[in-house]
Amino acid sequence: MKQDIIKIFDTTLRDGEQSPGASMNTEEKIQIAVQLERLGVDIIEAGFAAASPGDFDAISKISERVSKSTVCSLARAVDRDIKLAGEAVQRAKLRRIHTFIATSPIHMRYKLKMDSSEVIRRAVDAVKYAGEFVDDVEFSCEDAGRSDMGFLKEISDAVIDAGAKTINLPDTVGFRMPHEIGNMIREMREHIGERAVISVHNHNDLGLAVASSVEAILNGARQIECTINGLGERAGNASLEEIVMILKIRRDIFSKLTTNINTREIYPTSRLISSITGIEPQPNKAIVGKNAFAHESGIHQDGMLKNRETYEIITPDDIGLDINDTLVLGKHSGRAAFRTKLEKLGFELDDEALNSSFERFKILADKKKNIYDDDLRAIVTNEMTKSTQVYELISLQVMNCSGGVASSTISIQKDGKEIIDASIGEGTVDAIFKTVDRVSGFNGRLMDYRVTSVSQGKDALANVTVKVVFNDNEPAIIGHGLNIDTVLASAKAYISALNSYLSMQGMLRKNDSSVETV
Ligand code: KIV
Ligand code: ZN
Is 345 left (phi over 0), alpha (psi -120 to 50) or beta? Predict the structure, then answer.
């Protein structure tokens, strides 16, 4: 039977990064892109080149690393955005520019302050200009879900004539019911025919993003825009893992439709994203939630023991979750076993990264009896995604004084020199952050502070995520710290945010002439 491929367009690095608290640094984005390629996504939307020098840099570096998936940058329908998008994806083997303009009456009137003929003119100009940089141009009618059908047809005809190969019809505010999305796609498909691929991009404001995407597929959409763990603006986007598993598990319905996704890479990808962003999927989230394969009640456990299919329609193995093999290496394990285990988890490390990860593993193995897959993933990810280290923590001492006041003394290395300083604060974490501020001369404003436990046990690794504003005119920076000791992990997280901020500053200076922030 001839199979029809549903293209998976992953926007975790662009729309997903718009989730509050999900900003990632360049190294982290590269690791995610490499994993998305391993997962088999067709198109990686690596960012929005004109948004910031950091985005531009990440897209350019991803373009050099990824060869099987298409690398794409978002661009508003304005020349400057398109030029930067074109330059950012220039080195990718397969490249795409995704340009968009809003088409709904409310957006055109209040946001764009343009009439429909002006919107069409801008869209056509944008698509033609994008075509000067790449062969593969996608055009999105932002807020298509609330746009007039006649106008959607008119603008689609115009941009297809101008060279767009994919027409994306986003439900930007997640307003439509699945059957309404289905009707819109059927009508557009009948109108467009084979002239372009029809894509959908559904937001989850009413919890319908996946259902609407599936309805779109049934009515002729052949590209789905989605994110890992359903990350994204506000309530998020359609979740990649749910859509892909629906197509796989319900072959009886979707027999002729398939994706290029290797579903056994779903779980490792989900873990990578949550360990980098510090955002865990809700425990009862379909496919990748902590409880997705947990059977709690006696009746269910009894059924499972007799025949797994009584209560299980997906096996952990289908998504690459090895439930019998989570207890891993111990303190006597050698480098070869360590490397083999990492390869099994999907990491390809060069010698330098392997050595430093192995060192961190040994230190951890001395303190922690059982080391789990999640511990290893966290260590390696943390090691691989470290930004340039201007400041490095050498040692830390904290003391709780009376009345909640605490003091901290920190020794930090910068440019090979050791700096020791101390401060007091409202509690230990505050005292530590104030000491780092004293050493660096910055006055960071903490916007968010989160601790998650990486695996199980009282000696579990703590993953601390902080969000800090170092300059009121610039966006908040995310930092991560990993340690058995939550206090130490907090210090590392704050210093990692500071290091990312400083490396971003360096990038700003380097790119001053070519890239401005929007
Ligand atoms: O939600 C949306 O409409 C978008 C577009 C830029 C595709 O993210
Ligand atoms: Zn979106």
Answer: alpha
- CA 151 to CA 157: how far, in whole Å? 10
Taking the CA of 226 as reference, the closest ligand is 2
pLDDT at residue 515, as a whole number: 39
Smallest CA separation from ligand 1 atom 8, residue: 15
Element (H, E) at 293: none
The DSSP code sequence of 407-461 is EEEEEEEETTEEEEEEEEEESHHHHHHHHHHHHHS---EEEEEEEEESSSSTTPP
End-to-end CA distance of the chain: 49
E-strand stretches of 251-338? 257-258
**Which SS3 state, helix, strand or coil, does residue 159 take?**
helix
408-444 tens-digit pLDDT: 999 999 989 999 999 999 999 999 999 999 999 999 9
With beta carbons less than 8 A apart as the criterion, state whether 378 and 463 touch.
yes
What's the CA gap between 356 and 350, in Å, rounded? Answer: 10
CB 71 within 8 A of CB 59: yes
Under a CB-based contact definition with an 8 Å cutoff, are residues 89 and 134 in contact?
yes
pLDDT tens track for 329-368: 778 888 888 888 888 777 777 888 888 889 988 888 888 8
Domains and CATH numbers, the chain: 4-284 (3.20.20.70), 293-321 (no CATH), 335-384 (no CATH), 391-504 (3.30.160.270)
Specify the residue with its C-alpha closest to ligand 1, atom 1: 172
Predicted confidence (pLDDT) at residue 454 exceeds the cutoff of 80? yes
Rounded Cα distance, 182 and 220, in Å: 9
Name every protein residue with a CB atom under 6 angstroms from any ligand 1 atom: 15, 100, 140, 142, 168, 170, 172, 201, 203
- Kindly report, residue by residue over 250-299, the tens digit of the pLDDT: 999 998 999 999 999 999 999 999 888 878 899 999 999 988 988 777 77
